[in-house]
């Protein structure tokens, strides 16, 4: 069996591209400089399977695409594609050259593709700038018809026709990104990708791979361009940012309920085409007619969808996004092209090292490493062109589509999407945003929809099974009034781990004595997960470590202190016994059992003063909302008003779960003795702060005090 190839990550390529003279074999590329972003790092743009960089020398500008995802028979495909394009020139296409074993990343050589750099706007950017300029828009639909005619003349199909893969240069259209291109010489192969779902027939499969592949996408784009030209307000009403032009997959799944199609039908010039498109959405993909035939004078027969076709459509997922507050999950998707939904809470404006302005659009507290959208000066110039400012986004709910990267600043690593254009930000109503998040369990990206690949040596069945398992592992439950199993369509909830960099005290940590030992706390948490009381543990392994392992219980009731500390105590006792002072020997005690962590190790030997700090730090109580990662492993005193208390019972155990907030992603307490506590009480608890595997802080306590005066201070 062929060994699966491990592709470099985006961070690997970012490091490598800083030294093109050392990392490329081809002399043309070794003599180039890489375009940098305002922070001095290589500027990256993303496609489905590759990261694109602009390299420039004194003679030429290149687009170099570095692969970070597998593609079935990539070398053979590109050899045939390159040969065909070089022999069949067209103004809508550019030559592509496949260079195997070209770029050196961490000691291994990897392939790249080399294309001429095309200056211009993506169709998405062009519409954003010119949505209210009817004169410019009037020619777009006609220019797109020329593209369709050229594809038919060449007997090829792009495979992923979308507004991000069409460049407008001098008012002409050029297609880019040829990963999914069909040419006659690869007739009988399977499609390498399934394209952007907001431009594709919902029933498209890998077997659909021939010169007719683009027919559905062509109708989608032509209808959108014609509609915007005849009624520009449609772009402001339905513009989908980087996800799509006007149409979204829901319009294809339920065309008779689509408000967009109703609006298009109200335009006399488009009424007939829009009506036909409803039927096209509900028929087999093989029945999709040519756009030219639909625009002709003769009627086109579109077979009705069969019961099996309609049943397949009903099972399609329609809203697939990531929650902007789920930092841990976003960090797992670094390098992938995804859609993120959330509310913008802060806009920060600054000046980069190149003395140009930039803006950080934050979806939370940037000091906690929240998800951020970065707008460089080019994007800000586009905003200005349409009479908008970055502050117009403040407190808005938005959808953002782009490549997830990271930035390690003064505070901690944050996930981010860097945009060249604000066209990729779609403002929406809060109800629509929450609806998207409520149904989301998995984000669209072409890589994970790609069909089996020889590079990764995985069958279609294995890939589908793994994908379904991944979907289930990302479902988050809301709190329920009664303990009951999770429902399959429960609304998702983001896991938010609060972090603050406000302490530098030394915290001793203790390594576990047995990897196989399962503590009572673990059993309790596992039961809570299975019953939907708190966020379930993710099944897939994290690529970036953000959450902490469950604490494990040892047999010793107090802090495990190294033997040399006890020698120090003994010497101090003798010293104070013979000294003339009347002070008593200081005692180091813990009010609750510290839970050693499975992967914890001592970073340095704790000093006596450090242990004293750990023991006395809890003297002043803090509200539960202030608990953060800086307190992990430390004894703290926490207070709050109980909003939910319930008994959790298993076959062998029984305990109480206490919350101060209705969200499952906030601080909670588990205890065995809280009979006197009821909802509405202000309670004070003292114990060690721990974090579960989903990054949620909690305490396991033995005693709780009711102190109603504490919450009124």
Notes on the structure:
The chain is an alpha+beta fold and 713 residues long. It has 22 helices and 26 strands. A hairpin with a 5-residue loop joins strand 24 (690-691) and strand 25 (697-701). The longest helix is centred in the N-terminal third of the chain and has 16 residues, at 215-230. The chain is globular. The N and C termini lie far apart (68 Å).
pLDDT < 50 runs, ≥5 residues? 439-518, 535-559, 580-618
In whole angstroms, how far apart are the ends? 68 Å
Percent of residues in helices:
25-40%
Structural category is alpha+beta
How many individual helices? Answer: 22
Q: What is the overall silhouette?
A: globular
Kindly state the mean pLDDT as a whole number?
A: 76
Radius of gyration: 30 Å
The counted number of beta strands is: 26
Name the beta content range. 15-25%
Question: What about the largest sheet?
Answer: 8 strands, mixed
Question: What key attributes describe this structure?
Answer:
713 residues; globular; eight-stranded mixed sheet
Short description:
The protein is 27% helix and 19% strand. By secondary structure, it is α+β, with helices and mostly antiparallel strands.
Task: Furnish the topology, listing elements before pairings.
Elements: H1 10-16, H2 20-23, H3 27-30, E1 33-34, E2 45-46, E3 50-56, E4 61-67, H4 74-87, E5 96-105, E6 108-116, E7 121-122, H5 123-130, H6 134-137, H7 140-154, E8 166-169, E9 172-175, H8 215-230, H9 233-238, H10 249-253, H11 259-265, H12 271-281, H13 291-295, H14 307-314, E10 322-323, H15 327-332, E11 337-343, E12 346-351, E13 357-362, E14 372-375, H16 377-385, E15 397-408, E16 413-419, E17 425-428, H17 430-439, H18 446-449, H19 460-473, H20 520-531, H21 563-578, H22 608-616, E18 622-623, E19 635-641, E20 644-649, E21 654-659, E22 668-671, E23 682-688, E24 690-691, E25 697-701, E26 704-706
Parallel strand pairs: 10-11, 14-16, 18-19, 22-25
Antiparallel strand pairs: 1-3, 2-3, 3-4, 4-6, 5-6, 7-8, 8-9, 11-15, 12-13, 13-14, 15-16, 15-17, 19-23, 20-21, 21-22, 23-26, 24-25
Helix pairs in contact: 7-8, 11-12
